[in-house]
């Protein structure tokens, strides 16, 4: 017995590797890296969200409009007709002496495209490159925000990743019931865009007779009350504050024990809020969340300290979600649900069971067939096959790859295809034996002759698997992964491993009286 | 055990006509089915909503159908049994129904009178995603062909590459024809199965072509038909054997794998049969049709060898310092 040949040593090492790293997954131990089960096997919710990136551009220009307005007030510059038109802010300066100040202030903001039809008339929009940047940023910010919200929601292992230019994939394996699913979905898609807006008291009495177009002429918008769409408010288009300045939000209860949300502003927010309330006593301030007015109390006095509250008929759960959403920040733009797949845990368990049965039965049939057809060579091929399965599982566990239902099918399929290399080799050996070559040479040449066929065939299959990975989504990607690992592992086990075993047994084979028995021929 | 004697050579090329005719008929029939019946695109590609519901008794399909008919946005829903008579699948095509509606709640409400049930799966795919998935699917198929062409041209000769891609198209079209004929719902997993079939079928063809490449060098009479006959005969055992083992496991997947994996296994089942058949009977005949010339190939290989030798000579000289 020639135990120490390099092929056998590598094979032995790969067996050890396979067994050690596959064990945690097979035995479901608590420690050690295990294969992740895909959502289709363990149940859960998969969503594809599309970010409306155009909105991010609009809101960016809106926030510039607010800061221009605030700057002008601060510096006592008189601006006329400050308004937003699509993606453009327009205003006039009344006093020529102020042009320099305004230009200086605007030059500090990067990425603006400023046009001046006349020396006093300003048209400001974002430059194309800035727009792209804002859009790109809005998606990564949305990913961050959604991740934050889900973390606070307390779900196990949420996955939030960006896909392509504007899409986000959210995977929630922990979701078990329809109610949970709904709550999670609402939490994710809530824009949570809080704005403090001034009610336009000068035209407030015309709120029910004005069209939105007419309101726009006054730089105002018409918003509905959150709990009563028939109640409307005319508010100034440019908000005083937005949710960016919120640093904390908590659920509390008002005097009548209704859930409300208390929020705290950062210092600059608090200052703006304090000044505005001081200057507008007697007027109304609308608390607007996601385009709906929650309350519009009269300002009785200056509100310092930078805190406020949102009330407006929340349920406790709603209030909790709004608070989480406010804390983790507003979505820079609204998101739209493009695709949703939810699998109940019982279906996943059924799928695991079904594919396990298929795997075992298929595996058994192939192994029996190999032994019947090839005798000892079949047993050696089977050793390689079993090692192959261990290596697939071990590699997947090591890289934390996800096993999906098509992935399971991929493993089953790999079993069928992994014996291929050994079939090719053994057929070659048989041919050479038939031609009267000595058994030692038959084995050596058999492996050598089979090599080009095995390599070419496996590389082309691997190419297809890689394309499948690149273009596939979710479960299909899992299939490509298992197939690829399976092909690579089969080259290791079927070419190197079995060759090592033959080398080890070479003396025995050569001494054997009935060489045919080793390869299933007479 | 031996299925085929290792020294027996079958005359495939002499009897190629009936097989070519069979392939042509299957090919044209598949295209005919594709154009008349068409593919049954599932929601992955067409967009829409799928709800899988399991009852604790036989599902009252007629009752469910009546109830859903009365709801305007479920009126065009199709209801089919899924795997067992306790389980059903409701498919609603995309259109007015936006992805955001809460189908789960709605189903619970609407169907509450039909018995105890559990909603096991809800898939909603917006039309935009469906289009994108379809586009990506076609890209993947196209790219696979290109990659195979390039690789096989590089390793063999371009005629081998063209012949193998013809064989692949043959396999793919017939498999897709079978999918259309048996009304298999085409979703992402079917696309994966088709791509796997590509990989599997090219694998089979290459094993045969590898033998042809080898025998072209050794052949004495230099007749391509003879070389092909020997090569296909020598690889016959391997081709059938590997197909058999793969066939075994796919059959077990088809029988035991559960309803969700059914279409996938079916596609592979058809694919393995067609792929094996084309590797044995069809692929090599394309080589003949493409006027593959043994002499030219040998000359080229000899040229390659010569250049290789010269390179080595030069290198040896360089290393010895004579250059």
Outline:
The complex is a heterodimer of chains A (522) and B (323). Chain A has 522 residues and is an alpha+beta fold.
Based on helices, strands and strand pairing, what is the structural class of chain B?
alpha+beta
The biggest beta sheet of chain A is recorded as: 6 strands, mixed
CATH hierarchy: architecture of the largest domain in chain A: Up-down Bundle
Taking strands numbered 1, 2, ... along the chain, how are they ordered across the largest sheet of chain A? Answer: 11-10-16-15-9-12
Number of strands of chain B: 6
Per DSSP, the total helix count of chain B is: 10
Q: What name is given to the CATH topology of the largest domain in chain A? A: Multidrug efflux transporter AcrB transmembrane fold
Radius of gyration of chain A: 35 Å
| Biggest interface pair, counts | A-B, 76 and 76 residues
CATH topology of the largest domain in chain B: Multidrug efflux transporter AcrB transmembrane fold
Euclidean distance between termini CA atoms of chain B: 59 Å
Distance between the termini of chain A: 25 Å
Number of helices of chain A: 15
Poorly predicted regions of chain B? none
Number of strands of chain A: 19
What is the CATH H-level superfamily of the largest domain in chain A?
A: Multidrug efflux transporter AcrB transmembrane domain
Question: How much of the sequence of chain B is in beta strands?
Answer: 5-15%
**CATH homology superfamily name of the largest domain in chain B:** Multidrug efflux transporter AcrB transmembrane domain
Oligomer state equals heterodimer
Q: How is this structure best described in words?
A:
The complex is a heterodimer of chains A (522) and B (323). Chain A is α+β, with helices and mostly antiparallel strands and 522 residues long. Chain A is built from 15 helices and 19 strands. In chain A, strands 11-10-16-15-9-12 form a six-stranded mixed beta sheet. Chain A folds into three domains: 6-43 and 344-519, Multidrug efflux transporter AcrB transmembrane domain (Multidrug efflux transporter AcrB transmembrane fold, Up-down Bundle), CATH 1.20.1640.10; 44-147 and 154-172, no CATH class; 193-327, Gyrase A, domain 2 (2-Layer Sandwich), CATH 3.30.1360. Chain A has helices spanning 6-27, 39-42, 53-74, 99-107, 128-153, 178-189, 212-217, 267-279, 316-327, 345-374, 376-398, 405-434, 439-471, 474-511, 515-519; strands at 36-37, 44-51, 79-85, 88-93, 112-118, 121-126, 159-163, 167-172, 194-198, 220-225, 228-236, 241-242, 246-253, 259-265, 285-289, 292-295, 307-310, 335-343, 402-403. In chain A, helix 1 (6-27) crosses helix 14, helix 5 (128-153) runs antiparallel to helix 6 and helix 12 runs parallel beside helix 14 (474-511). Chain B has 323 residues and is α+β, with helices and mostly antiparallel strands. Chain B folds into two domains: 13-40 and 130-292, Up-down Bundle (Multidrug efflux transporter AcrB transmembrane fold), CATH 1.20.1640; 48-125, Alpha-Beta Plaits. Helices cover 66% and strands 11% of the residues of chain B. Chain B contains ten helices and six strands; from the N terminus they run αβαβαββαβααβαααα. Chain B has helices spanning 16-36, 43-46, 61-69, 103-110, 127-155, 158-181, 188-218, 224-256, 262-289, 294-320, and strands spanning 40-41, 48-55, 78-82, 84-93, 117-125, 185-186. In chain B, the strands form two sheets. A four-stranded antiparallel beta sheet of chain B has the order 3-4-2-5. In chain B, a hairpin with a 1-residue loop joins strand 3 and strand 4 (84-93). Chain B is elongated and about 90 Å long. Chains A and B meet through helix 6, strand 18, helix 10, helix 12 and helix 13 of A and helix 4, strand 5, helix 5, helix 7 and helix 8 of B.
